[in-house]
Design goal:
The complex is a heterodimer of chains A (115) and B (109).
Chain A lengths: L3 E4 L2 E4 L4 E8 L5 E7 L6 E7 L2 E5 L6 E7 L2 E7 L7 E8 L10 E2 L3 E5 L1
Parallel strand pairs in A: 2-11
Antiparallel strand pairs in A: 1-3, 3-8, 4-5, 4-9, 5-6, 7-8, 9-10, 9-11
Chain B lengths: L8 E5 L4 E6 L9 E6 L6 E6 L4 E2 L4 E4 L5 E6 L8 E7 L12 E6 L1
Parallel strand pairs in B: 1-9
Antiparallel strand pairs in B: 2-7, 3-4, 3-8, 5-6, 6-7, 8-9
The chains are: A mainly beta (115), B mainly beta (109).
Chain lengths: 115, 109
Amino acid sequence: ETGVTQTPRHLVMGMTNKKSLKCEQHLGHNAMYWYKQSAKKPLELMFVYNFKEQTENNSVPSRFSPECPNSSHLFLHLHTLQPEDSALYLCASSQTGTGETGELFFGEGSRLTVL
Amino acid sequence: DAKTTQPPSMDCAEGRAANLPCNHSTISGNEYVYWYRQIHSQGPQYIIHGLKNNETNEMASLIITEDRKSSTLILPHATLRDTAVYYCIVETGANNLFFGTGTRLTVIP
């Protein structure tokens, strides 16, 4: 138990569906992240939020839409996805200090399958 | 944008020290080196990080060369539960941790 909870753990959706992934951290951290991990590929940093403000968008397609309503919650809204978007989506949080990220705490991930 | 090079795989006998190397020859003076590991089907787990000095915690030791162009993660007494993919990461700015392909460590009984 890392203090970062992701739901759902598994999701199957069609290409025309709209769904959302949810992440909640109970650690009082000020930064939250979405990473994508595809089969046999490294983790890809997608989005970073610092104090609820998006500070990083790593060239992610617009069919992925993040939302950070407060520093404890992070969503990833999904619409018109492609089969190649099937992957493990990992949320993480950290207490960022001056000039360094600090320790990232990861959730267990949401495994997404797009049919 | 991974700035690190790691061997794709390594084996280590149970109970022995596991020494995992990482090259980061283009590292800048204020960039930290982080190590994480990922056990199958789980989220990555933080191990240790450092800037210039060697670091030690309850999990591992991090040895950074004086020129900072390489580092070694040392697991002093490897157990079967240490079998995982180990990632060496150079932080390219606060909140920017880009994972590479890592080293798959297999601890052998």
